[in-house]
Amino acid sequence: MNSCYLFCLLILKQSNALKRKLQSPHGNPPLKRQCKPSVNTFKKCATEAEVREKGSSSQKSLPKKQLTDNRNESQKSKPFVKTSSLFRNNPDIPEIHRKAVQQVQEDVFTTDSFNQLDLHPHLISTINTVLNISSMTSVQKQTIPVLLQGKDALVRSQTGSGKTLAYGIPLVQSLQGMEPKIQRSDGPYALVLVPTRELALQSFDTMQKLLKPFAWIVPGVLMGGEKRKSEKARLRKGINILISTPGRLVDHIKSTECIHFRRTQWLIIDEADRILDLGFEKDVAVILNALNAERDTRQNVLLSATLTEGVTRLADISLNDPISISIADEIQKGPKPASNTDRQASSSSDCMKQENFAVPEKLKQYIVMVPSKLRLVTLAAFILEKCKFEKHHKMIIFFSSCEQVEFHYELLLKVLAGGPESQQPGRSSVSPGCLHFLRLHGNMEQEERTEVFQEFLKSKTGILLCTDVAARGLDLPQVTWIIQYNAPASPAEYIHRIGRTARIGCHGNSLLVLAPSEAEYVSLLASHKINVSEIKMEKVLSSLMKDDRFKLHRPGSKKSCGTDPQEVRERATVLQTKFENYIHSSEGTVQWAKKALQSFLCAYTTYPRNLKHIFHIKSLHLGHVAKSFGLRDAPQNLTALPAAGSKKKTKPRPKRSDLLRKTHGKHRLAEILRSEYSSGMDTGVSKVKKKKQRKPGNQQIPT
Ligand SMILES: Nc1ncnc2c1ncn2[C@@H]1O[C@H](COP(=O)(O)OP(=O)(O)OP(=O)(O)O)[C@@H](O)[C@H]1O
């Protein structure tokens, strides 16, 4: 049993001992909270919510005792379902008092064309015709000349500003001109490290396009989940630009004889701050040792939208007198030069000290404050509003664990979209108004992961439920909404998640769902110069008025009118009842919901220490949180839950349970739970062959 699991159990016991009293968000003694006055205006019969499912409209409201009795009866005949009130005993939603901050902004585009650079004409025409790009972005204008001069660089610019081409173009320019001509069998001249498999595929795709006129240079991708044997065969044949996730590369360094870095002259680390996180640090050290052992000199490039001073530790071991390029900081440093785009790269790394990250100009950021009990219905209402009634939206929803992604995917599919028959696999678009759910997380088979990624990439609409595996680097066109159902662990991760929309000058929106006890997160974002506006939960829920599936049928009920708050609440309760009915339709689904809840609680314990005052498990009310997983009561028996993956009705997740068993220390656990950027082969690293002899004199980085 891992430490997190024990911790959760401890917390659950504590929560029970609190007898469901609500906890003050500020850590004061628990208080019985009152609902807002406006909530109290809701009539008792509705808040008691003796909600009948379809076909039971002839029944009248019953006293509470009778209701309970009826419910017991209903185990057989199911005439009634009681949903305890969603709208009572919720904590107050605090007012958000904060100063508006001036967000850091960058100019994405310049008017300069690629012709101004000293590039091979075929490369320029490929950029123009294959990639359909004519003018450089700011980061490209700053970075390409520096890299063409052979210098090392630290590059920071906002999400979706074209960093891939900022390193891709000079890389291809330099390799195509090499004499004697590069041969496939030479092996890697360049190594590109990226944190996830999908980003590896995407970068590979871009590289392939750039290399069209230079067919003798072979790019290749190594990533977890692929057959190791076929990767070995490809390595044997030769890969000149090797794109890989760190874990998978380490695996090959340790077990594949033919891999070598004799000619590796470029090291590019994309999403460098992410790759330097605790989870990857060891892998990167192994990789740098392997590179250093075979070659003394190399050109190194580190890129991210959120490069910070913390990255200088890697910079120290991997960079040689680097040039720092930070588009936003150049703007902040002083009065704008005559031409906005004419900024000079800085030779100091001072600008990386800045922890205020640029946000795309056309990105509108929102938060919604939702009491735990109402989270699920609010999410569902928001999805309906944007993807069913407004249409033409493409949405990504972030969760903090794979189990939650699987759980919400199935639940929303069954209850909101009307079952799997409404989802035709393989299609790239759906009819307007029809909800099309997809999911992506680290416990899926690679084949399916790639299929889903490709499908969402090509699709004009759709709702992708995912973990942070999709937070970094992915360029998914036309995404209009980013929902963060669980708050990210850092402002940097917030920036990357929202950065999946509003790319390269496009419009986009993001919504962060916070519990009232998490309200201070808004100030935390503001302290990093991130401005958010509030959307009221009631406004989100009012979209249920457009969907008569959630209308409460009862004798004498009047015609629905506009956004009557009482009816909105009734409908929210009907929807919640549908969720609960689905969950309580079998013991298997109840266990499944408990597991998802448990994984949420586990993930909640992994927020870093500096955020514990905002995200402390003690401020969660277990019974209320349970409701957002469709459970009618706070689970009393989480201890009795089967081991992950062993229950028939629950989703088998052997990899995850393996990972959890192999987890040592909270940081590693946090890594797995929050991000799961694993190579897919990470548990197999132990079958390691000793790597070749290191060159004497080369610096060895401790692993
Ligand atoms: N000069 C350009 N003009 C127009 N579009 C461009 C240009 N350069 C790149 N793009 C396009 O912009 C999109 C985003 O580029 P890219 O994925 O490289 O951004 P990024 O800065 O790496 O983002 P992230 O920080 O999220 O990884 C891609 O679709 C790319 O094709």
Automatic annotation (TrEMBL):
Its main location: nucleus. Residues 66-76 have a biased composition (Basic and acidic residues). Residues 56-65 have a biased composition (Low complexity). The keyword Plastid does not apply. One of its GO terms (cellular component) is nucleolus. A motif (Q motif) lies at residues 112-141. It is an enzyme of class 3 (hydrolase). It catalyses: ATP + H2O = ADP + phosphate + H(+). Keywords: ATP-binding, Helicase, Hydrolase, Isomerase, Nucleotide-binding, Nucleus, RNA-binding. InterPro entries: DEAD/DEAH_box_helicase_dom, Helicase_ATP-bd, Helicase_C-like, P-loop_NTPase, RNA-helicase_DEAD-box_CS, RNA_helicase_DEAD_Q_motif, SPB4-like_CTE. The keyword Nucleotide-binding applies. The Q motif is unique to and characteristic of the DEAD box family of RNA helicases and controls ATP binding and hydrolysis. This is ATP-dependent RNA helicase. The gene is DDX31.
